[in-house]
Amino acid sequence: MTDNGNVILDVHGMEILDPIAMENAINAIPGVVTVGLFANRGADVALIGTPDGVKTIVK
C-alpha cells in the first residue's frame, strides 16, 4: 500500500498480446490511478542493468 492509501498490484509471467488495449482497459476501471505498461507512450530513455554496470539507451 502506498502512502496515499493506494494498492500496488504487480503481475509477473502474464503474456500481454495487445499492450495498448490492455493499458486502456485497465485505466478505464474506476479507481485505477495509473498503469505501469507505458504502451501508449514509449520511453525516451531505457536504463538497463548489466554485470558491467548500467547501460543507457536514448531514443
TrEMBL record:
Keywords carried by this UniProt record: Isomerase
KW Isomerase (keyword) present: yes
An individual GO BP term: D-ribose metabolic process
GO cellular component: cytosol
Keyword Isomerase: yes
InterPro entries in UniProt: Ribose5P_isomerase_type_A
Example GO molecular function: ribose-5-phosphate isomerase activity
Entry EC no(s): 5.3.1.6
Enzyme class: isomerase
Coiled coil segments of this chain: none
SUPFAM superfamilies xref list: D-ribose-5-phosphate isomerase (RpiA), lid domain
PANTHER family reported for this sequence: RIBOSE-5-PHOSPHATE ISOMERASE
Protein name, entry field: Ribose-5-phosphate isomerase A
